[in-house]
Amino acid sequence: GQIGVCYGMLGDTLPSPSDVVALYKQQNIQRMRLYGPDPGALAALRGSDIELILDVPSSDLERLASSQTEADKWVQENVQSYRDGVRFRYINVGNEVKPSVGGFLLQAMQNIENAVSGAGLEVKVSTAIATDTTTDTSPPSQGRFRDEYKSFLEPVIGFLASKQS
User: What molecular function terms (GO) are annotated for this protein (predicted)?
Assistant: First the structure.
């Protein structure tokens, strides 16, 4: 199997992105998740052969849902600009999206998917949910979404299934 580690950038006296990439390689960590686009980290990943999950911050959902042009621009600036040398595995739209912005999630995902396809990129589009979005999880086959999440996550599941993401 392969190991992946989230690369968080909040903190003081953090190592440089190039030092982080070197550490990943030294420790044979083959996958990375960035919680948002960071030009320094993306540049450091060039040629590293590390597979990347790049998050679209939840704070961008409304803007990207409301405009295909904005989604196209986001993909151009943060993915297509680095396509030579960075191994994008997934674009993760939102992280543990709350019901207050959940209504924007599906459209943002669709717009990002359209932008990815339009750019000729072979990158899957997905999202990440918090563990507290589900209830009655034992056994897992009995699990269900909490009511406040169901209205926006069920259509997302359909979208993901249709794209085999």
Answer: glucan endo-1,3-beta-D-glucosidase activity
CA atoms within 13 A on the CB side of 24: 26
Position 3 pLDDT exceeds 90: no
DSSP 8-state secondary structure symbol assigned to residue 76: H
Q: State residue 152's pLDDT score.
A: 94
**Confidence (pTM):** 0.93
101 DSSP 8-state letter: H
What CATH code is carried by the domain that includes residue 14? 3.20.20.80
Residues 12-41 as b or e (16 or more Cβ within 10 Å = b): eeeeebeebbeebeeeebbbbbbbbbbeeb
pLDDT of 1 above 80: no
Number of domains in the chain: 1
pLDDT class of 109 with cuts at 50, 70, 90:
very high
- Residue 6 to residue 4: CA distance in whole angstroms: 7
CB 106 within 8 A of CB 152: yes
163's tokens: 């794209």
Q: How far apart are CA 150 and CA 28, in angstroms?
A: 38
